[in-house]
């Protein structure tokens, strides 16, 4: 695999996993061929970026496990866990979902096979105390709101008429929102959802 291709896959995986999620009071759908986060500002090779995104979409469509199923699988590992972030990664040999769940003051990282739903490798846990203040604050809010990422995924898929490929929490203008990337036709759409009860937190 060429260095450029690895960089494009890396950018795609980072961009898709860089989003964090919950559930909606209102939805804003940004239409376009690729969310801004998926563009490499330093690499002028837009055609290579589009090809990488197309390959990722193709691998996602060939997966039998949905994003909602992957979240349920990861959350079932620890009773009471909630998903904070999920992304599809088709750049590896086996397409997987990378899922981060919150449980008992820890972030648990899971890798779920997108074809079989099996957990790949073990789990990794990171104490919340090791995160920066903003991340801890965002996760604290996630624990207090009634809606979950799974709720946001359902709303985003309906709003954008497609299937979610990633989601997570983002803070925009001081407000915590869910950001969901949805495949709609051959396009990626970013759906921003404000969870009820998150305003002002």
From TrEMBL:
InterPro entries given in the database record: PepSY (IPR025711)
Region forming the signal peptide: 1-27
Keywords carried by this UniProt record: Signal
Domain named PepSY: residues: 65-121
Name assigned to this protein: PepSY domain-containing protein
